[in-house]
Amino acid sequence: MKTILIMRHGEAAPVKVNDESRPLTDRGVNQAKEMAWWLKGHYRPQALLVSPYTRAQQTAQQVLAINDVTYVEICKDIVPTGNAAFAIDYLETLISLNTELNVWLIVAHMPIVSYLVEQLCPEHLPIFNTAAVAVIEYDEVAQKGTFKSMNSPSL
Q1: Whole-angstrom Cα distance, residue 56 to residue 137?
Q2: Which of 4-8, 13-17, 81-85, 101-105 has the lowest mean pLDDT?
Q3: Taking all residues of the chain, what is their mean pLDDT, rounded to a whole number?
Q4: Under 8 Å CB-to-CB from 109, ≥6 apart: which residues?
Q5: pLDDT in tens, 7-33
């Protein structure tokens, strides 16, 4: 059994030039820090897949500053318009190749974070608050997830 954590980035600034370069606000940085500490206290992620967009990268930086993550990869498939089925196929491949890693964290965006949960747990299509984390227990043999909880920052 593996644990898959799906996290939306912290609060981001409004679009000025393009969506990809939107940074976190101060509040977004604080949300990401709070959830990074929550992750350390409850799950201790070992592997991280992160969107290439600035706000997801900045959220992941907060997680990496506090947690001992051993595998990090930027994944172009988990952008807002990405294909969730393709992204989950890729994640399942990574899990099968890295059997020693038991806790996987994905940092991405709405709406793909909701669709990733739905791919793993078809009965769930959650809406994520900024910096929220969905917790899924994943049976890699059956390739099926069980939705456990949704956790949001207090900020």
Answers
A1: 23
A2: 13-17
A3: 96
A4: 8, 9, 51, 53, 55, 56, 78, 79, 80
A5: 999 999 998 778 999 999 999 999 999
DSSP assignment of 49-117 equals EE-SSHHHHHHHHHHHHHS---EEEE-GGGSTT--HHHHHHHHHHHHHH-TT--EEEEEE-TTHHHHHH
b or e along 123-147 (b: 16 or more beta carbons within 10 Å of the residue's beta carbon)? eeebebebbbbbbbebeeeeeebeb
Q: What are the pLDDT digits (tens) for 39-80?
A: 999 999 999 999 999 999 999 999 999 999 999 999 999 999
Order the strands of the 47-50 sheet from edge to edge: 71-74, 47-50, 103-108, 2-8, 133-139, 144-151
Residue appearing with tokens 């907060």: 62
